[in-house]
């Protein structure tokens, strides 16, 4: 085969391979709290959206977004749609665990919100949790391959140890009840616990931590929670993308900054690229 034809063939192969890759991001954007002063949402929201646009994840799960924040992100991301509800009333009150998806590459097939409690279908507080906690579920179709992926965007309680453990058990029970254990699955979100904790170990009985299985070494800080602290090294990893039946090509804890070098949120986004 002539060299120029070989080169063209190689470039076409690389192009097709890159187009087949998809990306998932999990990001706690920090709720709209004026007491955050220079880190207040109104001061950083444009930089947050610009970061999302730059990485252009096919699926983005956010945590802590209040209704005004979700609507702002939705307005600014013109080629995205979202699913999710406020956790305090199942409508617009309280924080969302919203799932945004790029409508150019992804199609929504089904969605449902579950409360992380003994009463998963109604607004409720579970076990020893301090407040309502939810998981937003979405079944999506990849428009380029027709593959489906099931995504669970979670925000576990920050105080209740029993609630966090039971939340992991509940998520696994949903997967079993849906009979999707042989499908492509991503459980993402702010789980408010460290990698060696019991809630994560429960999830890892059926799922894999993308940080550990990435084909290339994880990039960025080892942790995800920064607390808006510019001086302290980010080592506490409490945000996750756990997968099943998915090949993870790369994993990144995104450490981008605002234009004034302040942090975008008190959490770093987690970004994976998958086959």
Percent in strands: 25-35%
Overall CATH class: Alpha Beta
Oligomer: single chain
Based on CA atoms alone, the radius of gyration comes out at 19 Å
Topology overview:
Elements: H1 3-20, E1 22-28, H2 41-55, E2 59-63, H3 67-76, E3 80-83, E4 99-102, E5 106-115, E6 134-142, E7 148-155, H4 161-178, E8 185-190, H5 198-203, E9 208-209, H6 210-213, E10 239-244, E11 248-253, E12 270-274
Write a brief caption for the model.
Helix content is 26%, strand content 26%.
Structure overview:
InterPro entries: CCR4/nocturin_mRNA_transcr, Endo/exonu/phosph_ase_sf, Endo/exonuclease/phosphatase. The protein is of the alpha+beta class and 275 residues long. The chain has a single domain, classed as Endonuclease/exonuclease/phosphatase (Deoxyribonuclease I, Chain A), CATH 3.60.10.10. It contains six helices and twelve strands. Strands 3-4-2-1-12-11 form a six-stranded mixed sheet. It has a six-stranded mixed sheet with strand order 5-6-7-8-10-9. Helix 4 links the parallel strand 7 and strand 8 (185-190). The longest helix is centred in the first third of the chain and has 18 residues, at 3-20. The two termini are 29 Å apart. Mean pLDDT is 94; it is low at 3-18.
